[in-house]
């Protein structure tokens, strides 16, 4: 990912709308975008259903913030989280925010934080309403985070003896089936390539990735089963990928061209 990793981030979690079992994976994802200098989670910790959060909170050094439910049917947790976010904003202690929730009530908060020039990353389940998703600079689905983390753990746990030995001539790997990527996404990529392409029709992959997220905040190659944007683009026969070496060792420039462009 071509994100800045030196950003100071405030991670604010809505315990009522975030899965406890994915907390560790969520915090690992946060580290991709920056350093979490403030980590808080909001809920009514006197209720039995939040008692199981204690272990994960201690493991990830997250501070629980108590917020009583004053009235049945009203979510006081949202108000406490919004007030804290605005307090943190005015102190100038962070460069961005990570809002972990599937609740559309945080849409206006995300908009306000971005108006103040802060980066806003949203993380929630696929049920998250679209207004909250598009209000963020980038939105990542928790199901995708969890699936990627489970796959990585399964790969690490495989005994070395079971790993296939390297052959002198590796067989040619077939391309991933294109039906995994919706036509609308292919069109989005093609339009984005056309927007930033040079005179020869080539667009830098890093610049392409940034533009895709700006157009569609929940765009993520992992949504379609690919760990990286380069792998996704290579799987699509419509695009040509050109990997060019640079003067620096182990550093290459990856360029993308739409074969159907005129």
TrEMBL record:
Residues 181-258 form the HTH OST-type domain. PROSITE patterns: HTH_OST. InterPro entries: LOTUS-like, NYN, OST-HTH/LOTUS_dom. GO terms for molecular function: RNA nuclease activity. It holds the Pfam family OST-HTH. Residues 153-180 are annotated as: Disordered. This is NYN domain-containing protein. It comes from Candidatus Flavonifractor intestinigallinarum.
């Amino acid at each position: 990912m071509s994100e800045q990793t030196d950003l100071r981030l405030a991670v604010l979690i809505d315990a009522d709308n975030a899965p406890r079992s994915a907390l560790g994976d969520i915090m690992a994802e946060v580290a991709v975008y920056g350093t979490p200098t403030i980590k808080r989670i909001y809920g009514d910790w006197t209720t039995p259903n939040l008692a199981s959060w204690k272990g994960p909170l201690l493991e990830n050094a997250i501070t629980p913030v108590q917020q009583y439910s004053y009235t049945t049917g009203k979510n006081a947790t949202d108000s406490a989280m919004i007030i804290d976010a605005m307090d943190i904003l005015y102190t100038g202690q962070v460069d961005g925010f990570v809002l972990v929730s599937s609740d559309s009530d945080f849409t206006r908060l995300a908009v306000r934080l971005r108006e103040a020039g802060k980066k806003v990353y949203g993380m929630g389940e696929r049920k998250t309403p679209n207004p909250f998703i598009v209000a963020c600079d980038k939105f990542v689905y928790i199901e995708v985070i969890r699936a990627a983390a489970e796959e990585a753990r399964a790969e690490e746990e495989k005994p070395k003896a079971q790993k296939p030995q390297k052959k002198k001539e590796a067989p040619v790997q077939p391309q991933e089936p294109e039906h995994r990527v919706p036509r609308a996404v292919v069109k989005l990529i093609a339009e984005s390539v056309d927007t930033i392409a040079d005179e020869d029709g080539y667009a830098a992959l890093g610049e392409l990735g940034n533009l895709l997220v700006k157009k569609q905040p929940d765009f993520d190659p992992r949504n379609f089963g690919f760990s990286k944007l380069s792998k996704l683009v290579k799987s699509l026969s419509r695009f040509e990928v050109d990997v060019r070496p640079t003067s620096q060792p182990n550093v290459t420039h990856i360029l993308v061209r739409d074969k159907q462009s005129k």
